[in-house]
Amino acid sequence: MSAADASHLLETKPVGKLLLQYSIPAIIGMTVTSLYNIIDSVFIGHGVGPLAISGLAITFPLMNLIIAFCTLIGVGGATISSIYMGQRDMEKTSSVLGNVFLLCVILGFCFGGIATLLLEPTLRFFGASEATMPYARDFMEVILLGNPIAFTFIGLNNLMRATGYPKKAMLSSLLTVFVNIILAPIFIFHFGWGIRGAAFATVIAQTSGLVWILAHFINKNSSVHFKAGIFRLKGRIIKSILSIGMSPFLMNVCASTVVIILNNSFMRYGGDLAIGAYGIVNRVLTLFIMIEIGLTQGMQPVVGYNYGALLFDRVRRVLRYAMITGISITTFGFITSQLFPDFIVGMFTDNHELTELAKFGLRITCLLFPLVGCQIIITNFFQSIGKAKVSIFLSLSRQLIFLIPFLLILPRFWGITGVWASLPMADFISFVMAVVTLFYFNKKGLLFKMNKQI
């Protein structure tokens, strides 16, 4: 598809069909990615043991930090490139590609090196005990070894989707999942590598996905591709990428902070298996959140392009359709978790104590889950139209402003139940905040006003 063809479709095709065209591949990709994380946990839970599930949960904050830096560059670059394409400035769009590639490689090596040097004290800070440390350390040593690959894969995959190739971006995710699902049981069960085998499978899978993406951007027939002159870091582009990407970056950093507090709270009030229970619950709810994120990834290029082209009526319709779909996704997650907790938790473990802890936590955590869908859509909508500060505020409201205080206060009165209850209470307040912010900006005429810094 040429750049002209992609641009024509983005500004003329019915927005409902565009949202489906861009979202469905992204949703499939994110869903399958989440599913292979779940399958990894299932293999680890049954092939290594319940404490390995707890050790894996200990690594979540560090994994969130990796994702935070990936989205800082990838989502920021994708949003900026969509807006530049809407303005028909292909030279700047190409420069974004070069800058995203360089930033991913540089940050990937720097983060991986520093995290490896500080790994053991970091994991202890995250809540690792003597029993869970070996599992957490073995897993992260391998993951950090492949960190530059993960950074570049995620960053360029976002850019591929934003520049008119949502199906290819989906296929790259499917490829990594396919490779991971094949290799993980072989490494864990046949070779006896345990949790380290799951990590090796993940790194090899991401490498295969990166090869696919690089082949796309090397191809001169792609609307945006590698070419001479784009591999120079430019201050204005970097500033725009970081400004837009700061919202999902801070959201993931806050998620990491929250998980650290959660892990330490669960350790204090329930022990290692309580951390494992949260690991299971987190995997399950993350599946639906990832579907939601897939929807926002599909929404982003459609909103970004039409916003850049000043087609605001189309932008409004995309927002409306996305909100309806987003709420439906998390409502389905709520119903499933409430009706089938035995089946869901049973996939991960056959340990009775861990099963009962996870079932109890799942039912409480998802009590107000339908509202989460609306909050995520609104937050990402502000990000897609370049209003980074608003998006950052809404991202922080749930985790930093509301959830952390609840986590520090409620367990003092309700113990482990208070830890679980903090999550739906924060969901409700952050939902109200997002809706009020959207109505305020719309009423004041600030919602559709171009950011001069873009």
Brief write-up:
With 454 residues, the chain is mainly alpha-helical. The protein has 19 helices and no strands. The relative contact order is 0.13.
Question: Which range does the strand content fall in?
Answer: under 5%
Residue share in helix = over 70%
User: Looking at the structure, what is the overall shape?
Assistant: globular
Structural class: mainly alpha
Order of helices and strands: HHHHHHHHHHHHHHHHHHH
The biggest beta sheet is recorded as: none
User: Mind telling me the C-alpha Rg?
Assistant: 21 Å
Estimate the mean pLDDT confidence: 86
Cα separation of the termini:
26 Å
Helix segment tally: 19
What does the oligomeric state look like here? single chain
Structural summary, described in words:
With 454 residues, the protein is mainly α. It has one domain. It contains 19 helices and no strands. Helix 2 packs parallel to helix 9 and helix 15 packs parallel to helix 19 (416-443).
Please render the helix and strand layout as text.
Elements: H1 3-12, H2 15-47, H3 50-58, H4 60-86, H5 90-117, H6 119-125, H7 133-145, H8 147-162, H9 166-190, H10 194-218, H11 235-269, H12 272-308, H13 312-339, H14 341-346, H15 352-365, H16 369-384, H17 388-409, H18 411-414, H19 416-443
Helix pairs in contact: 2-3, 2-9, 2-12, 3-7, 3-12, 4-5, 4-8, 4-11, 4-12, 5-7, 5-8, 6-7, 7-10, 8-9, 8-10, 9-10, 11-12, 11-17, 12-13, 12-15, 12-16, 13-16, 15-19, 16-17, 16-19, 17-19
Protein name: Multidrug export protein MepA
Family: Belongs to the multi antimicrobial extrusion (MATE) (TC 2.A.66.1) family. MepA subfamily.
Main location: membrane
